[in-house]
Amino acid sequence: MAERSNFNIVPNSTTQAGTTLDNLKAAVCGETGATTKYTAFAAAADEQGFPQIARLFRATAAAEKIHIEMEAKLIEAEEPDYVRPTAEPAAPVTTDCNLIDAALGEIYETSDMYPTFIKVAEQEGNTAAVGVFTRAKLAEAYHAQRYLDAYNLIDNETDEKFYVCPVCGYIEKGRFDGRCPICGVPAEKFMEF
């Protein structure tokens, strides 16, 4: 595989890696928790008067569901009886703090968890898992950026919508032409939030 500059694992990694199958299951658990959390954060943002941020949380929850589907498909190929996990609802706080919480989770995934899982999958020669983890890792970096941008502009919301790539979960703010920078899907196929 070609050398990649942003796939290094952060120093003092906290990710406990297992086999690729174990890592896929851990990723599904993490993404399930994120989906539940972001759904609760969206409701809180609506209640607190931040409709654009609520749309961002809903868009990211949808993107995380895409990651769950990619990962669960690989698990179910090895374990047809696999039961997908559920997650307890999160307790949202203020929208600004929810944005930081979400950004930190996305940063962890893109800089620690997914690079660790990619390394294991490469060592095991599991190219399908490398591809799935790589798409998710790259999308998570954009999610973190969207959350940090929303945090910095929290008092200057616009009516711009968010668009989610249905293949990899990349999120674009505002209408755009072209293709997904991660997987190449045309912009007209994106889901609007």
Largest sheet: 3 strands, antiparallel
Order of helices and strands: HHHHEEE
Distance between the termini: 35 Å
Q: Helicity level, as a percent range?
A: 55-70%
Gyration radius (Cα, Å) is 16 Å
Strand content: under 5%
What's the helix count?
4
Shape: globular
Strand order of the largest sheet: 2-1-3
Number of strands: 3
- Give the structural class: mainly alpha
Averaging pLDDT over every residue, what do you get? 96
Low-pLDDT segments: none
Assembly context of the chains: single chain
How do you describe this structure in short?
With 193 residues, the protein is mostly helical. 58% of the residues lie in helices and 4% in strands.
Protein architecture, described:
This protein is mostly helical and about 190 residues long. Helices cover about 60% and strands about 5% of the residues. It is built from 4 helices and 3 strands. Strands 2-1-3 form a 3-stranded antiparallel sheet. The longest helix is centred in the middle third of the chain and has 30 residues, at about 95-125. It is globular. The relative contact order is 0.17.
Q: Which features characterize this protein?
A:
single chain, 193 residues, mainly alpha, three-stranded antiparallel β-sheet, 4 helices, 3 strands
Summarize the helices and strands and which ones pair or pack:
Elements (H helix, E strand, L loop, with lengths): L19 H28 L3 H28 L16 H30 L2 H26 L9 E3 L6 E3 L17 E2 L1
Antiparallel strand pairs: 1-2, 1-3
Helix pairs in contact: 1-2, 1-3, 2-4, 3-4
